[in-house]
Design a protein that fits this description.
Subunit structure (chains A, B, C, D, E, F, G): The 26S proteasome consists of a 20S proteasome core and two 19S regulatory subunits.
Structural class of chain A: alpha+beta
Oligomer: homoheptamer
Number of domains of chain A: 1
Family (chains A, B, C, D, E, F, G): Belongs to the peptidase T1A family.
Number of helices of chain A: 7
Pfam family, one (chains A, B, C, D, E, F, G): Proteasome_A_N
Largest interface: A-B, 36 and 37 residues
Keywords (chains A, B, C, D, E, F, G): Cytoplasm, Nucleus, Proteasome
CATH class of chain A: Alpha Beta
Mean pLDDT of chain A: 92
Strand content of chain A: 15-25%
Main location (chains A, B, C, D, E, F, G): cytoplasm
């Protein structure tokens, strides 16, 4: 990476109109743990690959419940993500208290993005070093959003985030056209297959320790499927090589 | 790009009286998505070319409704644009509440420009990295304004913004003299033709996915024409090669 | 321009007692659009040469009404000028409200200058990058003042500002002795002749699009003469080559 | 260590998305005194190796009681640790006052982590240069958490911290599978054996002066075992060479 | 002027105990317009040489009335001087309002000096770039004070300030012993003669346009003598070559 | 000392996790005047070697009474020490007022340390450049504490501070085992002997001018022994060469 | 003077524990005008050598009355001294108002020193560039104190300050033993003799213009002896060459 006089302050534009500190914060997201989010007409699913620093410690959680109808998957600086997650929980609870209904997913995502934007324009702070995949369900249906340190957010049918996410994205691009009408089970399996693509060959692969699944949908509050509860899906995954072949 | 000791602080003039950080922020506008705005006596139209990072995601919205009589097209940093759009919506609503009438378009544009100017004069902030094309209609008729990171704004009959906007501008300069008396349909078609000029040759061109049209006019609240609703205009566009030839 | 360690902070004196950032801000004024102001015993007149970025846009206004008895011509950063113009309007209106009479021109100019001075003495701001020619009429007669980014202001019989203003100044110096007793028409023509000197030879010259005239005087509220209304004066100007010769 | 232009400000991301100042603060933790924490189903135990600057002074305390059900072991800057310890005591007491029950261990750890995160995102402060091993017992059982200057925290079955902690970690990794069902005595002995691994060969080893033990568990408020009280365990340790052999 | 690492911040002492930024501000005073102040037992007189940027503009005022018993002559940055002059007027008026008597001259000068001192000790401001000659009369008699950017002030029998002031000072030093018992007319003439010494040989000399005289004394409120009113003194000056000779 | 890019800001960690500015502040302590503190079961004693800049001035006090049961010896920047001493006096008095009992020595020392820690973590301040030896007596017995600029504090049986303190420390290490049961007189003599070790050979040695002794103990409020009152101890010291020999 | 990276910020310690900016401020004191202070059992005397920039101006005052029982002599930046003098006057008056007795001299000196210390520890200010000799009399007798930019203060029997003060100090060291029982006249003469030592050989020596004497003592409010009133002492001084010889 070349030497650059415009890349150490968040309030400085480069001569080509870029804000390098925001871009560097996005690098922190790219090197976070990998995760996949996808949706059908009725469900939004997030699956994450958890990491552990050693076998002595538990795996680091990457999925968090925000409210009954919203959950998030984080990639990047965990401590920053916690700040944003707390913010989302508060905003969602406040909205429910004031309006006696659930906050719409995009509205909550916009609030997170606005909060992030502030950190890109004032001296003396740094951008949040975290990206979120937000899965939610509201009167407009199932949603998958990605938020960025820049204050941007994107609406996706399916997306992956974190290290080696390109491989998962390739899987998703090949298969996403069928997601809309998938059953929940099929949707979860697609998510796991995409996630599996992000694992280097010499790794042990997906297992009940390192996989977490989050599901939200119509009359289906955001639910975490973890540990043994993931085994039925992982077992189906093991036997599906032919299925994936068929897809390819 | 040459080394410059006056270009990293918004509060610093260069020896030739320039504020480089403002100019760099304008670069962010130039590299945003392309858009075109034009007006007749009765209508103001904005057309934008939306981008998508991949086929998994939806196209990024570039047109936003501010109020019944005003809409904007953005180019540059989306998160910054969101801040300004929210500001415009609040100011417009407040005005309506206090004066029981619609805010005049130029007055609202001036407020945005004043807000932008503040970011060019105090240490510790950066200019907004976004330009807006504002289309509106008020008792003075149809309006097209462009706002800049510098706090300047310009009144146009027709204008384009963003990457490759020079090509669209050339089209507009050849044709703008007839815009005043155009029908709405003709005006939209002129806008789409100008926008088409901003597309590199090897691209797929305009289609119902990547084109958004915003219209506002006399007794015609600001309306977004998107997706399938754009097809009638796109179809007319396809059959109009001869027309454009005639123009040239 | 030589390398200088004292020229990047507004709070730093050079070893020779200069504040370079103030001087650089004055450069922004010199490169603004050109304008001319002059006065007789009864009238003060400002004439400006407007610029347009392209034929698609309207010409940028350079004359602004502050109050019935005061108007300004700006040169430099337009957004900064807007801030100062708003300030003058507020101060003038407040004065009228409190004292039930018009604010004296010099008093208002002093307020602008004091506001500008603050920006030359505290860290974290930059000077205003704009100069104003203020034309006004009060119980002391007609006035022309120039304000500067430094917080200085000057009282003139006639003056020009902006790019190529030296040529206009030369015309004014040759002719100013007769201004005091001119008719309004003659005064305007002198202003236009001086303004014409600032136009490079290969330009189209003055026309009803690029010229604005502001007049204020005894029982004559500040009035803008623009577009077609300028034609009588421009026509007289075309036929006055001999007059100018006679003057030279 | 190489020269780096991104490592002197807490608000600066490096081009690879790292915040070097946070990483440097973690170095302060690595060079602190060594400690070990481990848990069974019913107990959490922390053991620390105290240092003394000379025989004239008492050994520096590294274990602190936070509340009846929580204690901490510190590694890094002692003065920073005191700030965090006071904060934990206050939060725990406030919680008890408001809710009339003990704060859950993870909740308190999260508060410390959130407080630490703030110091990684705003200009003008530095991260806390201390890591904590938190041992606690609540309705969810025994807990061992580690907090970091980054605002991250980790849930462990067993862990070591500070200088030469890798040797202790190796011992823990070989033996941790049996910890869950250990008696308290066995658990303490495992902790001491792991701690012994962090002592350079030419040192005097563990003794009642330099060892502190903290225990918390079901119906067992956090208790410090120090000075003579440690002798029974140290004596058992001396005679256990074969045991450790057996383990290896 | 040599390169210096201690001269860009007002809060930095050089290794020899100097504050260079204060000294540089004093340079701004030295390069201001020249002025002379002197006093007899009953009168204090200030005379100034006004400058004009061109014949189109009026001469810049350098003498200002502060109150009936005090006036000032400024040298240096005019906008800074205006700030201090306003401050003096306010303080003098407030004193009169509270104590129902005139403020003593030295007391007011001390206030100005204290205000200036603040600007030499806190980061983020710059010293005032102006020196004042204060002429006043109170129950202690006639006074001439000079204030400096450093916050120092000096009590003089006679003094000159601004560019080429050394020549005037030489005249004053030769003649000051007779000032105490001068008539007012003689005192003014001494002032004009001293001022004349500051004019380069090829200049036009003193005239009613470029000279201003301020007088204050016993039962003689501070009065400006300008324009035609200066002619009697200037005429006497023209005929006094022999007198000056005699003095030398 | 090598050139270092991490050592000029208190908020900057070095890549090895050190805060150099804190370490530099500790240098100021090392170069302060030397002092010794030691305790028996019933008494805590501090002895200091006072310095005088010349025979014209009195010796600088280094011992200060904080409260009846606490006194301090300072080494380093005297002005900083005064700030901390005032703080201790206030805290001790407040405690007595609120709780109607004496503050425990360690509690007061912790308050000083916490105050010092704040100065190591926020931009724009510097650490206190002073170390304190605190001698006190409370219900837990006699205490000697040392506080540091880092916010650390240490509990000692005996300790020395300031320049050449290593020699005194060597004496203390050889003899401290007998201190616990010393009489007060013996304890003072041990302190003086240790202090004598810090004096260069060519100096005049201890005398009633340069020695101060502070004593606190059971039913013995903190008392300063100065000037002539020190003579009995100094006389005993002169005759004790054999005693010291015996010890060695 | 060597190049130093630690000497431009008041909040920065050098690697050897020094705060260079404080030391540089002390240089300003050394280069101030010279003064001498000395005391007997009943009186404290300060004598100062005043400077004048030219014969046109009065001599700069260096002695100031603080209260009936306290006066000061300043050396260094006069404007800074004025700030401290005002502070002392206010504190002394407030004390008298609250306690209905005179503030003790050392207490007031401590307040000045504490105020000075603040300027050595916070970013964005500079130390006071002035040293004070404080002469006072209270129930403890006569006092001479010196305050420094560092926030230190010293108690002296006799001392000199400012340029060439070493020569005066040499005189004082030779003679101070007899001061305690001097008559006031003798004490003043000793002060003048010491002051005379600070004058370069080619100067005119002490005279009634450049000498000021301040006296305070038992039933003797602080009194300034200036101008003609100094002549009796100066006359005695002229005839005392033998006396000084006798002393040597």
């Amino acid at each position: 990476m070349y030497r650059n006089q415009y890349d150490s302050e968040i309030v400085t534009f480069s001569p080509t109109g870029r804000i390098h500190q925001v871009e560097y914060a996005m690098e922190a997201v790219k090197q976070g743990g990998s995760g996949v989010a996808l949706k059908s007409n009725k469900f939004a699913v997030v699956v994450s690959l958890k990491r552990s620093s050693s076998e002595l410690g538990s795996y680091q959680k990457k999925l968090f419940v925000v409210d009954d109808h919203i959950g998030i998957l984080i990639s990047g600086l965990t401590a920053d993500a916690r700040v944003l997650c707390n913010y989302m929980r508060n905003e969602s609870a406040n909205y429910k208290y004031v309006y006696e209904s659930d906050i719409r997913v995009e509205r909550l995502v916009t609030k997170v993005a606005d909060k992030s934007q502030v950190h890109t324009q004032r001296y003396g702070r740094r951008p949040y070093g975290v990206g979120l995949l937000v899965a939610g369900y509201d009167q407009l249906g199932a949603h998958i959003f990605q938020t960025c340190p820049s204050g941007n957010f994107y609406d996706y049918k399916a997306i992956s985030i974190g290290s080696r996410s390109q491989s998962a994205k390739t899987y998703l691009e090949k298969n996403f056209e069928g997601f809309a009408t998938c059953t929940l089970e099929q949707l979860i399996l697609h998510g796991l297959r995409a996630l599996r693509e992000t694992i280097p060959n010499n790794d042990t692969g997906l297992n009940s320790k390192n996989v977490s699944i989050g599901v939200v949908g119509e009359n289906y509050p955001f639910t975490l499927i973890e540990e043994e509860a993931t085994l039925p899906y992982l077992n189906m995954l093991e036997s599906d090589e032919p299925v994936e072949m068929q897809v390819n």
